[in-house]
Design a protein that fits this description.
The chain is α/β, with parallel strands linked by helices and about 200 residues long. The protein has one domain: Rossmann fold, CATH 3.40.50. It is built from ten helices and five strands; from the N terminus they run H-H-E-H-E-H-H-H-E-H-E-H-H-E-H. The chain has a five-stranded parallel beta sheet. It is globular and about 50 Å long. The structure holds shikimate-3-phosphate. The site of shikimate-3-phosphate (S3P) has 10 residues, from loops. Shikimate-3-phosphate binds next to loops.
């Protein structure tokens, strides 16, 4: 079955349709550390809701015409961050969609404000051991190209977790099937929307 047809079929659950309707033009934005599973969970969440999935990192690479490691290497982190903020600002006008952001994106206060205004945010929170295990599988992450990646990871977590906690909902990312995480995201989003979340989103019928 082609992807789009599968998405439509899977979005047919009435409670999922209601959630998508309540989003209006807003996106569901996934935030969290490298290795938290934003892209893999995001893809499944999008399929379930029949929404497009967008990976902000892939769009940054597309806009720059080079890979993220190459952007860091040739232009530096500061330039990567300003490009990242510009790309995400543009993408946030394209909702409803599921948008996975790179681990540093939500640290930018302007990006955070835009996400608050135009999206509903989900922090995929993972503990150190889970992240470390997953991060070891990939060696191309410029932020962790340090003498001691484990210490760097812990330092980034210390700085970022208080900021990530500003997201509208938090879900523990752990070693379970992605479908389990997707279900929890949907439950928390429904609960938040029903509770009249401060994002200005309408309550579910
Ligand atoms: C970064 C995370 C990466 C990517 C870039 C910087 C970070 O994305 O945006 O390497 O600062 O945490 P993922 O979180 O998708 O790995």
């Amino acid at each position: 079955m082609p992807d789009a047809a599968l998405h439509n079929k899977m979005a047919a659950l009435p409670q999922d349709c209601a959630l998508v309707a309540a989003l209006g033009g807003r996106s569901i934005v996934l935030v969290g550390m490298m290795g938290a599973g934003k892209s893999s969970v995001g893809r499944k969440l999008a399929a379930r809701l029949g929404l497009p999935f967008i990976d902000a990192d892939a769009k940054i690479e597309e806009a720059a015409g080079m890979s993220i490691p190459d952007i860091f290497e040739t232009r530096g982190e500061a330039e990567f961050r300003s490009g990242e903020a510009r790309v995400i600002a543009r993408l946030l006008d394209g909702g409803p969609q599921v948008l996975a952001t790179g681990g540093g994106a939500y640290m930018n206060p302007d990006t955070r404000a835009l996400i608050r205004a135009k999206a509903v945010s989900v922090w995929l929170k993972a503990d150190f051991d889970v992240l470390m295990k997953r991060i070891k599988r990939r060696t191309d992450r410029p932020m962790l190209k340090t003498a001691d990646p484990a210490t760097t990871l812990q330092q980034l977590m210390d700085v970022r977790y208080p900021v990530y906690s500003e997201a509208d909902v938090t879900v523990e990312s752990r070693e379970v099937l992605h479908e389990v995480i997707v279900e929890e995201i949907l439950d928390r989003l429904r609960a938040a929307l029903n509770a009249g979340m401060e994002t200005g989103l309408e309550k579910l019928p």
